[in-house]
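Write out a sequence, fold above all:
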Amino acid sequence: MFRTILPGCSIAAIVAESAAPASARVWNVGGLGQTGRHRSLTTSEIGLIGLGTMGAALSMNIAEKGFPIAVYNRTASKTEAFHAAASDLAAAITPTATLDAFIAAIAKPRAIIVMVPAGQAVDDQIADLRPLLDDDDLIIDAGNANFHDTNRRAQAAGERPFLGIGVSGGEDGARYGPSIMGGGPRRHWDRVGHILEAISAKHDGSPCAAWLGEAGAGHFVKTVHNGIEYADMQMIAEVYGLLRDGLGHDAAAIADLFDRWNGGRLQSYLIEISARVAGTLDAATGGPLLDVIVDAAGQKGTGRWTAIEAQHLAAPVPMIDAAVTARNLSSRRQQRRAAEDLFGAGPTPIAPAQLTAEQLEKALIAGKILCYAQGFEMNAAASREYGWNLPLPRIAEIWRAGCIIRSAMLDDMARALSEDPDRNLIFAPFFADLLRDSQAALRQVVATAALHGVAVPALSAGIAYFDALRTARGTANMIQGQRDFFGRHGFERLDDGTTDQHGPWADPATGN
């Protein structure tokens, strides 16, 4: 069996053990053992640091797929408890109590996944590791990192191997198959790609793991994924609000409706779990669990990163912006209560004839298309800005399973992006047809919500984006006139194309 390597266990002892008869020291990678390789009982093919929720689940996944793994956690008791709970997989896992022992347990050249909280903790862990590693040992930051940090760490690594990979899917995804977005030099990805593909989710047999570009490309794409996730969740919550506060549906009826929608065009993980959440009863009260959940949404900041980076890239993502703002507002419960006391409650009843289930479904379809289109446009903008050459169709493919935003529509998005990766998704014939069929419903839903005081910021931002994008002659000419008036910024003439023009207010004789 694999054993814990404790302080004082020398490299000589490990070498001596590896010289034991083969029958006593090797095991065949079985079960899913596609590699057919044999490993020494004292060496692991890969290591992982950080046995929190995601790290523990990912370690089990790696072991189950037939790759011996060494694990380390700063708190040794956590490592011991994890190993003790590993059951049949314990033999494929080498728990270690010190970093020295951890490194000694991994076959050279080493590959080490770091799964500690994003930020300074990652830098501290890398600083602790580097003096103990060989120059060709690979560090893989698989946490929820800001891609700017990943770029910085990649630069600091120099020629020493470093990857930053985004992992999406939550605990269940990490345990049974996440979506994995890789960034860094391709040659480093190729060293561990067989492991990452093996542990990833599969869609029709295709692994949802891919190398996407240099440096922070993988973590950037994960950030956009999370921004889309914010907006998708917000739109579902808005429709829930219309059903509950406007149409007076109870949680059970809402659960049934979401469940029905999940059998159609809206089929997705988020609609599926929304149906389950709405249909769950509270053990303490016997009523709907939703009715006792505080209406203040948490966030770890990744949606905020998406909104911030979109502004830097001049990439319009108004639905993601609205979703982030909605989460921020949700936390202001006392202020919202005071406003209701002062102005009266917002939501007022909506007659069933004013808003149908079909309209709500179509509004979500239109919103989903527009939201994902904004996300892929943001990926394209980053690809141009940073020279990543992001494979947009492949991104859509690896999002089809394992990740939080997995959706039946991603199949069609992958095909549309393969046909023309440079166009906005709404111009692809398939999605253009869907929008023609659904945009009126989105407009009706937003208008009805506004007239009845139900806040639908993400859906509202969606229809505003759509209308602005399909208006050939907009109103920014007024803005340019204003800018020229107060700042002499100049403007371009529509009739002859001349630039750096000024209005008569710029004439010194007028005093303006």
